[in-house]
Write a structure and sequence with these properties.
Layout (H helix, E strand, L loop, with lengths): L2 H14 L6 E7 L1 H12 L7 E5 L6 E8 H10 L14 H16 L7 H18 L4
Helix pairs in contact: 1-4, 3-4, 4-5
Length: 137
């Protein structure tokens, strides 16, 4: 993966959502580390693909995003992500990782997918952003 291009794509995503001037921390890790974080912060003792932690906009911080690259690879290459992933994210593993970042950004912006209406809004924003930005990967 070209990390310079990936970083630029993330910046374009942040600009797309109007938060390009805020600080975002991204940790790419493995299943063991994310499982520990998931257990500590969500009380779920299992690995997950992405966790997000809201920041403080008043301090110029969008938040933190943690992605298990190991889990993301498992999901991407086994096609186990289901219908929630936009088509553009299925084109390459880099696009899929970018989708996870976008998903985390939207959580940091206060969006969730805990009901049908909010999930539809979140999925629509993910798709719109990825279609616009994935060309930079």
């Amino acid at each position: 993966m070209n990390y310079v291009k990936f970083k630029k794509a993330i910046k374009y995503c942040m600009d797309f959502f109007g938060v390009g001037d805020l600080e975002l921390s991204l940790l790419l890790t493995d299943n063991e580390e994310i499982r520990g974080l998931n257990r500590e912060f969500r009380k779920k003792d299992c690995p997950t693909d992405v966790l997000s932690f809201e920041g403080d906009f008043n301090l110029g911080i969008l938040g933190d995003i943690v992605i298990s690259v190991e889990k993301a690879k498992e999901d991407f290459f086994s096609n186990s992500y289901g219908e929630i992933v936009p088509e553009v994210a299925k084109r390459s593993f880099e696009n899929y990782l970018l989708w996870l970042v976008v998903h985390g950004i939207l959580h940091n912006l206060g969006l969730d997918h805990d009901n049908e209406i909010s999930e539809k809004e979140m999925r629509s924003k993910e798709k719109d952003c990825l279609e616009k930005v994935s060309q930079y990967l």
